[in-house]
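In this section we walk through a basic example: taking a raw amino acid sequence and producing a predicted 3D structure, encoded as discrete structure tokens. The instruction is simple. Fold the sequence below.
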Amino acid sequence: MTQKKCKIVQDVSSKLQVQLLHALPQIILAVGRHNRIEYVNSRAELYFNTSSSTLLRMVLEELFHFDSPVLSLVNQVQRGNSGINEYNVEIGWIRQKANELMDLQVTPLSLDDETVIVVMQPRTIAQKIERQLAHRGAARSVTGLASMLAHEIRNPLSGIRGAAQLLESSIEQEDRPLTTLIVDETDRISRLVGRMEIFGNNNLADHKMINIHEVLGHVLQVANNGFAKNIELIENYDPSLPKLLGSRDLLVQVFLNLVKNAAEAVSDSRTHAKIWVTTSYRPGVSFTVPGSRTKTNLPLQITIEDNGPGVPDDIRSFLFDPFVTTKASGTGLGLALVAKTTKDHGGIIEYERIGERSIFKLLLPHQKPERKSKKKPPSQVLEKG
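The resulting token sequence is shown next.
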């Protein structure tokens, strides 16, 4: 091979390596002498919400807290010249409000160089499975609670209400406000039980093939004319997204709940209030539920993002459990209903905080409609002789 051809091959190989590094979903940093950052890939720029030109002028101490495991592991590798892997480590950076669970790999670039490679892998896939199972458990608990309430409370309530109305006609005028109070309170409890009965309904009898963009368009139209009329709503849709099998009314309720929560979050924010609604097709996402050998593919992704302050750290793990809320007048049933409805549609929902955005992400399956078998009448079936 000539020298010119050899150089061309090397250039192509070098460009391919750079493209591969930028395409990887992991956060990759190359750290040199005095902890100077010498290389970052595209995922690192996105995660740190900072351009590569800015990151390459920094040292690790300007990016991570002084007690960060990233700093200690880089120091160990530089001194010991051997790679270290740590899994399920809490990692945060200076501009991030909360730590995040990650798998961390730190390895030397070569034996005669101080440069080390830092690979950070957010544990999103594992968390999707864990959260899916947690949400299903929460949904089952709420469903059981709803059935119990409907059966054990609704009937006695009607008896109490009827007795109070009968008493009203036979007591003194000054005591009648007490019977009115009994009727009002039984009606209030009955309404609460009615709301809980929604969780007990597992029947998706009205399921059909739905255009999710039509659902989202309806939700945003309601939001624009009501609770989000002073908020910038940004739509970013993938037009090639296939239809999904589900209940239109239930999905409208899910996204109304999420958009309304986002609107309430940004209304208290001092920044320009924005909500992003995005759809995309991600064919690589799948999981297997324990006890089943069948893998579920969840390629349909819908995200609701806002630039509000986010969910407090102390309730993130319980966000989709019933009766968990940050609102003074909230019931804590909204996100529990969202999780249950998502589960009923065969999907999962998760929350994450990236940079200055709060993100609710729904992953749903692409299910084809069932084909009805066309059987020929017996008279048209030819008998074989």
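Looking at the output, two observations stand out. Residues 127-200 form one domain. The chain has eleven helices and 14 strands. In the next section we compare this with other chains.
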